[in-house]
């Protein structure tokens, strides 16, 4: 166990162990090739015929034998040391290898009982791989033991580090492909070691797998001199160990000895850190494994070199149905693994192989961390009402929503301190986003050099900030998928940096929900603040509310979007999100001082409804409104309320209904989203025939996408961000995008006919005020005083 | 000049030069602080009063003095060596510094004649910074000499490398902030040196600026030991040079000497490469500059340390209007630069400063590469009709669209070979995307180690492939903004990796178009292939057609989206895109064998119209159709045509109109997009009252977003990708998403009433065939033969 061993704890492989290890590896390779090619005749009991072969060869070989080699040696290490080990497989298309190992160790059959450890099970294993309705060719949610999808490259190391946070007993073996190593997210993930606490977190063993080639190119890190690679890894803060070759027996001996040495190093680091002897940042080991791509596969096909070139990436023998020569070569390739030695008469792995497999939950395919819902403990959440602002009258007080939220989050951390299962991630913005109350209870975890002027940095802390949205997202995903809770706070515009990571996580959740053996995990919570309307310092480059549009393309059962208009609604929404499971929750909220509209009870009710009429702001009591003014988001809410108060003063006879929307998904039809309103509910809020003016936080057309099937859709007019902005004042931003109170009043006048002479005067006043705003702002660099100092009067 | 100097060409600063250099730096710092604070009294002719100060202090100080220091020393080097130097400033919020330098060298006044080099000009310079309608606080399109927006971090080095490709004479000095250095894209951009050809490309001088802090945190690379940083940079293939300190005179001497040494190294590399003496990959120099954040600013404010801490990031003295102490401190800070020594009576820079500035086009603010449209040469484009397939009858022949496009691209490269101004970028997929004909004419540029089995790799080539979409996009942006042409080909799903980079580029183009001094540049062309409908090998993780939705949020005048349904339309679209300027063109096209529908002339006409009726596929000749079947994208087109042929056979009386859409923007109202159809045009295609079934390549709701204002919108029913998929057959993919021919027929039957008994039988047949498909596919792993072998019969 960790801390007990020493660096001298190296046990050379004896010949029996070598033989057994190699047999296991051959079995995994055999089963991998079988998945690529075979529909039938899984044990090659008869000569290979065309009808045994899949009609469409889908899947990839190149990376697989190396992954199988790693798996076999990790099994040995787990058995010898009784270690708690999870794998993360970075390379794409490792599917067949991991499925083969899962089948060998029995975890495949436990997850999918129809696929037993016998000949029929092997046939099914082969057939279902990359087959319609079957198993994907990447390591995926369907793969027992995985928390990481192998499709899009670059996130393995961040996932691995996220998994070991607060899991001091856990080791994650993270295989990094040399293709993947070229991606940005991976390249910076090496530096996460500056945030890992060896005393309270587990260990990651990165295994950089240099098999030399991507789809069609050599890999960069495989084509730099050894001394450069060594410097690079040491520069990233690691101590590299190398295993390099292609002769199996030698490679087995080297790999076993090297993993023993590495585990000894890890044990020493953890032991000394936990005994308080290690106060600096340790240099963690990294294993560099150099093997031929397509190792043990065909060396040449049709006169072209295959093994150890990019040509082994996919299907080395592509014409096995049409070309008898290919078919013969495939058969001898398969037989080179000597299946009869590996599987018994029933098709089950022979005892020699089974002996290679760790026991029960120590099997990597059965590690409970990889099915995090098994370990998930609900958060203890302090009653958010106690943090709520007292709102005696709407709009009479102001607060900074995220600052108040920060106090509640601080106490969420405190309340769950003993479980160490809640974390906050952010690129560098927790304080900028005004969540800094959390530092009263914790710190930013930081293992880099400390200086006297530093604040809120400590070796142990619940907050991790690294200026890489990719790393923050990757850590959070790894943390959640291993059964914990968390929140990522980010500038709204820059969350697009992780659009594609979000895609993959949403796809993972969708797939997981369809697997009865995967347990629900905590939702992925985004708090997007420093949003489009308040980029006073930053301007145009920081203005993009489109992440909402992006997430909407994923499955409705996964996606939730909230736009709390004030502090208390933000608290209520945050409480809801931290209780939820298997969603992606996107919360967009302001950090700037904003009027408070609802008290705690009203906020709870409003958030539960998701959208509702604000009667205190409406003037349609007891009658059909002349116009519905709807708002979603804090800045739009402010402008709509300001517009209604102008209308109330200047056109008191006009019946205005104010509708506020917190839960954006409510706008969709009930048939499209679980939160969607029925048509009756929608019509009750928005009428069937009155003009609706809807001021929305983001790009206006999203509202049309959500509402186009509603009866009154033709009367809905949306104002929102239309990509106009610069470094300017808050009010100038809404003016530039035609969402300001004066423009909204004009919009009403344009849509409600027959308002007569008072309306004409009002319109001219509105036009004049906008002109005055423009002149004032350009002269004074500030908002019009009447806007800046405006206060809601009910 | 390059190649003439040697490493010994170091000229120590003498005292006069030191004094002048320091004066220039003080002037730049003074002008930077002025921009942050001053509305008036720019030369401090009178004591500072409240009314001289901006009411809202927006902007940032921390990074600026270091940037000014770099600029001053680059100027010295440019003057001494007459070098062609462009800057790229990575750190955010460097705006005031670069604007100060631009004003000092006169390029600001050339771009913005209202801001002269005199007291009134200085007043305007100060006032307009971060002021409504003024200059942004980041280095931006508005900044003379910039090709790089300083807002979102991480892309500087890729932009710099992109700029020097094929510009052997150009040096790009690229300042990388230590915050930015934590991002993934930057972390992997270091490795672009494995692709840079020192003989035919220019040089990048990366200047890693360690000022130690981000917004609220220490920077990782500033808190690792020197030996780790050194190893990291050497491991990335560079030779680091260090300048480290805070005492100005010493720092000036060290910086000048170090830059001399570095330039000598660069000259030696370039000279030996160009003489053929250097055949390996050179180790390029990198400069590591360590200076205090907020250098020369307030050391302490209100008892808190400011200089050399994160507190100097933004506005060091925040209450200068309210707090007289702050105001006094500001005044003495400003006076510490001794403005009277720097500016003459008129407010112009004194001759001593002017002498520091390089001449004319050598001023970095005037470098024509940074306004690439000035240098842009139109591509010579071979007539794409000569590459077109002969299509005698629609659907009678098949081809792989991207494979044919590859042949044309090969000849585009050849035709422009002497200009060296066209490049293809891709993560590792040029061959996978079947564009590999380009390798008949060129190679992948690669400076890494070469092996005997390698193919299509060479030191000089028009294709660059690195497995980082960020790097590919960054290189292309840098290449385009310096006046060249290019194309990025990428798997459709993974282009989301660069969503945020696209955002910034689109914002850059929008801003540039509003600046009369910026000339149009070539469009950024995406070829998205290996698309959602044909991920046979890859499955769910590779299925995401949402990039189209993402780009649609940007300004209509920038965005173009094309969905060519076959080979000849792809050729026509590609030709159009390579001729266009200042757009982002998104082309989604298949690589798989697809029927050819249009011959070259028809394709040209169809693409010019953007959308049109395919009469040869329609059965509504001379009458109003009973149903419009529309399609956008290759897979939808195939399914719609297959559905219409079922309908023609089984319900010959039904009048079906087939509409194909190539240019997606045509669907929008003319008021929303320059390509948008008028309502009359739209109604002529889609009718005002008939059911429209539209099969679309991507997420269906985008079509509703584009068409919700159309008269017939309520009758438009869209089929598209609804996030259902796995590793499966092509036809199973359309079935899973309800876009298959049989489902489309059922959709027609659902929408056209009174078709009677034959319709009932047809419906049942369609339902049965779908069931049969499912059973067949699961049994055989292949598509139903009647689907797989289906051929259009007109």
TrEMBL record, chains A, B:
Keyword field: Lyase, Thiamine pyrophosphate
Protein name per Swiss-Prot or TrEMBL: Probable phosphoketolase
Domain Xylulose 5-phosphate/Fructose 6-phosphate phosphoketolase N-terminal residues, every copy: 13-374
Keyword Hydrolase among record annotations: no
PANTHER family in alphabetical order: PHOSPHOKETOLASE-RELATED
Domain Xylulose 5-phosphate/Fructose 6-phosphate phosphoketolase C-terminal, residue spans: 591-792
UniProt xrefs under InterPro entries: Phosphoketolase (IPR023962), THDP-binding (IPR029061), Transketo_C/PFOR_II (IPR009014), Xul5P/Fru6P_PKetolase (IPR005593), Xul5P/Fru6P_PKetolase_C (IPR018969), Xul5P/Fru6P_PKetolase_CS (IPR019790), Xul5P/Fru6P_PKetolase_N (IPR018970), Xul5P/Fru6P_PKetolase_ThDP_BS (IPR019789)
GO molecular function: aldehyde-lyase activity; magnesium ion binding
Cofactor(s) the record lists: thiamine diphosphate
GO biological process, alphabetically ordered: carbohydrate metabolic process
Top-level taxonomic group: Bacteria
Signal peptide: none
EC class (word): lyase
């Amino acid at each position: 166990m960790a801390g007990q061993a020493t660096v001298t704890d190296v046990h050379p492989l004896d010949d029996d162990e070598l033989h057994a290890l190699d047999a296991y590896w051959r079995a995994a390779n055999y089963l991998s090739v079988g998945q690529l090619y075979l529909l039938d005749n899984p044990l090659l009991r008869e000569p290979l015929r065309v009808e045994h072969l899949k009609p469409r060869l889908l899947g990839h070989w190149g990376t697989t034998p190396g992954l199988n080699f790693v798996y076999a040696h990790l099994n040995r290490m787990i058995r010898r040391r009784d270690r708690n080990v999870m794998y993360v497989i970075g390379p794409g298309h490792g599917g067949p290898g991991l499925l083969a190992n899962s089948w060998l160790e029995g975890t495949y059959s436990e997850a999918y009982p129809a696929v037993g450890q016998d000949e029929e099970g092997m046939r099914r294993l082969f057939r279902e791989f990359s087959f319609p309705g079957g198993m994907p060719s990447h390591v995926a949610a369907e793969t027992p033991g995985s928390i990481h999808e192998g499709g899009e490259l670059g996130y393995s190391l961040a996932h691995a580090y996220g998994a070991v946070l607060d899991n001091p007993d856990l080791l994650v073996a993270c295989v990094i492909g040399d293709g993947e190593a070229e991606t940005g997210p991976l390249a910076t993930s090496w530096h996460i070691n500056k945030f890992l606490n060896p005393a309270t977190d587990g260990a990651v063993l990165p295994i950089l797998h240099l098999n030399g080639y991507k789809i069609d190119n050599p890999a960069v890190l495989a084509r730099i001199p050894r001394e450069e690679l060594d410097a690079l890894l040491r520069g990233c803060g690691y101590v590299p160990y190398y295993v390099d070759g292609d002769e199996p027996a030698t490679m087995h001996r080297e790999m076993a000895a090297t993993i023993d040495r590495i585990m000894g190093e890890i044990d020493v680091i953890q032991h000394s850190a936990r005994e308080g002897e290690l106060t600096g940042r340790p240099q963690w080991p990294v294993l560099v494994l150099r093997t031929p791509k397509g190792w043990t596969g065909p060396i040449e096909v049709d006169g072209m070199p295959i093994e150890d070139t990019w040509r082994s990436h996919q299907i080395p023998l592509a014409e096995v149905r049409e070309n008898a020569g290919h078919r013969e070569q495939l058969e001898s390739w398969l037989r080179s693994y000597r299946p009869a030695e590996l599987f018994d008469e029933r098709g089950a792995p022979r005892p020699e192989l089974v002996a290679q497999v760790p026991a029960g939950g120590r099997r990597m395919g059965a590690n409970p961390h990889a099915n995090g819902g098994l370990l998930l403990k609900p958060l203890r959440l302090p009653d958010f009402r106690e943090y709520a602002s007292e709102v005696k009258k709407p709009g009479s007080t102001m607060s900074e929503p995220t600052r108040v939220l920060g106090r509640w989050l601080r106490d969420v951390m405190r309340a769950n301190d003993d479980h160490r299962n809640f974390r906050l991630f952010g690129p560098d913005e927790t304080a900028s986003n005004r969540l800094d109350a959390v530092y009263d209870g914790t710190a930013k975890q930081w293992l880099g050099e400390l200086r006297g002027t530093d604040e809120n940095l400590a070796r142990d802390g619940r907050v991790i900030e690294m200026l890489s949205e990719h790393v923050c997202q990757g850590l959070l995903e790894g943390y959640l998928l291993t059964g914990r809770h968390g929140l990522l706070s980010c500038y709204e515009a820059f969350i697009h940096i992780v659009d594609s990571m979000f895609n993959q996580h949403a796809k993972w959740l969708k797939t997981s929900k369809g697997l009865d053996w995967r347990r629900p995990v905590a939702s992925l919570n985004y708090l997007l603040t420093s949003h489009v309307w308040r980029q006073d310092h930053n301007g145009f480059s920081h203005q993009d509310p489109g992440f909402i549009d992006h997430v909407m393309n994923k499955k409705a059962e996964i996606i939730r979007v909230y736009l709390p208009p004030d502090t208390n609604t933000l608290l209520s929404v945050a409480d809801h999100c931290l209780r939820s499971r298997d969603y992606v929750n996107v919360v967009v909220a302001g950090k700037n001082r904003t009027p408070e509209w609802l008290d705690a009870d009203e906020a709870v009710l409003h958030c539960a409804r998701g959208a509702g009429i604000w009667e205190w702001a409406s003037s349609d009591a007891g009658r059909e409104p002349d116009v519905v003014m709807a708002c979603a988001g804090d800045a739009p809410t402010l402008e709509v309320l300001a517009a209604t108060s102008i209308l109330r003063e200047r056109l008191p006879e006009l019946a205005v209904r104010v509708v506020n929307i917190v839960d954006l998904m409510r706008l969709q039809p009930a048939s499209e989203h679980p939160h969607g309103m029925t048509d009756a509910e929608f019509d009750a809020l928005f009428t069937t025939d009155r003009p609706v003016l809807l001021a929305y936080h983001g790009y206006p057309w999203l509202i049309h996408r959500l509402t186009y099937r509603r009866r009154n859709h033709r009367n809905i007019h949306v104002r929102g961000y239309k990509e106009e902005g610069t470094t300017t004042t808050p009010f100038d931003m809404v003016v530039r995008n035609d969402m300001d109170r004066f423009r909204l009043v004009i919009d009403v006048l344009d849509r409600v006919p027959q308002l007569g002479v008072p309306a004409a005067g009002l319109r001219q006043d509105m036009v004049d005020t906008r002109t005055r705003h423009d002149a004032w702002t350009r002269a004074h660099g500030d908002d019009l005083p009447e806007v800046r100092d405006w206060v809601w009067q009910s």
